[in-house]
Write a structure and sequence with these properties.
Number of domains: 2
Number of helices: 9
Bound molecules: S-adenosylmethionine
CATH class of the largest domain: Alpha Beta
CATH architecture of the largest domain: 3-Layer(aba) Sandwich
Structural class: alpha/beta
Strand content: 15-25%
Radius of gyration: 25 Å
Strand order of the largest sheet: 3-2-1-4-5-7-6
Number of strands: 7
Order of helices and strands: HHHHEHEEEHEHEHHE
Shape: elongated
Largest sheet: 7 strands, mixed
């Protein structure tokens, strides 16, 4: 005899009927105290795709958000542009507006690099040089992020714009095939504060992308093609998959930290 049948047999009929009519709240309470949720096929300790961030299946979920941000800000990608690693984003979002492009890389082994420098020191990079800096997926690889942000401020022309993206929720690639060390995961709050210590507060804008489903899919190495667009587009501020920031250097330049 099931628990339901026992209850039916012992309870007076009106009580049983009342309970039947109020099944939904009881079901909710039962689910709340149930041990072990139904995680379906994702109840596993290893990722579905352990090989990469999703690129073997299509477009990486973080790249979808990064490129959405750069599309919205594409008017900023103009004049003398600084990109990192290669000039893909300078060309894609700047086009003919990017009249001169430099590529910064930490080590000299990158054939695309026109400037080899450490952003945390940055002595070799000229001051007041760039109209736009595309600092995508870079800062989490730099230990001294405070120094790096000061360099970004110094090397921007007055009125110049830095467009930043960094991971909020993302796995770490321990295999480190690209020899890129990862030190940090940011939140919108930490990234904002980092820049507001150097740029004026009202010159800094932060936006986040992602939701719990996009985060889980990205952690498992699924790609954009694995999800319907509306699932990627929904933005839940509690799940910061990608954090984006736009900061503008004032026309009248002040020494960082001097007066903000
Ligand atoms: C994950 S790649 C991102 C490249 C590109 N911007 C993108 O969106 O794919 C990280 C980049 O950060 C650069 N990087 C890491 N540490 C750096 C440092 N201390 N100074 C300057 N660049 C650094 C690496 O050279 C590499 O180009």
């Amino acid at each position: 005899m099931s628990a339901k049948e026992i209850l039916k047999a012992i309870l007076p009929h009106p009580v049983g009927r009342w309970l039947g009519n109020h099944r939904l709240p009881f079901e909710r309470i039962r689910r709340r105290f149930q041990i072990g949720g139904n995680l379906g096929s994702l109840r596993r300790k290893t990722p579905v795709n352990p090989y990469d961030y999703g690129e073997s299946r299509g477009q990486c979920i973080d790249r979808y958000y990064i490129e959405q941000f750069l599309t919205v800000q594409s008017a900023d990608v103009r004049g003398h542009v600084l990109d990192f690693c290669d000039d893909t984003y300078a060309q894609k979002f700047g086009g003919a507006k990017a009249t001169k492009v430099d590529v910064l890389h930490l080590s000299a082994d990158n054939p695309h690099a026109t400037i080899v420098a450490d952003l945390a020191r940055g002595d070799q990079i000229p001051s007041d040089a760039f109209d736009c800096i595309l600092c995508t997926q870079v800062l989490h690889c730099i230990y001294d992020v405070h120094a790096a942000v000061s360099t970004l401020y110094r090397i921007l022309k007055p009125g110049g714009v830095v467009l930043v993206t960094d991971p909020g929720i993302q796995k770490i690639d321990c295999v480190d095939i690209k020899n890129e060390e990862e030190y940090w995961r940011f939140t919108s709050l930490s990234l904002r504060r980092l820049f507001e210590e150097v740029f004026p507060k009202d010159h800094v804008e932060v936006k986040t992308y992602g939701n719990v489903l996009a985060a889980i899919a990205f952690l498992h190495g699924f790609a954009v093609e694995d999800l319907p667009r509306e699932d990627l587009e929904y933005c839940d501020p509690d799940y910061e998959v990608t954090i984006t920031l736009r900061a503008v250097k004032p026309m009248v330049t002040l020494t960082p930290r001097q007066s903000y």
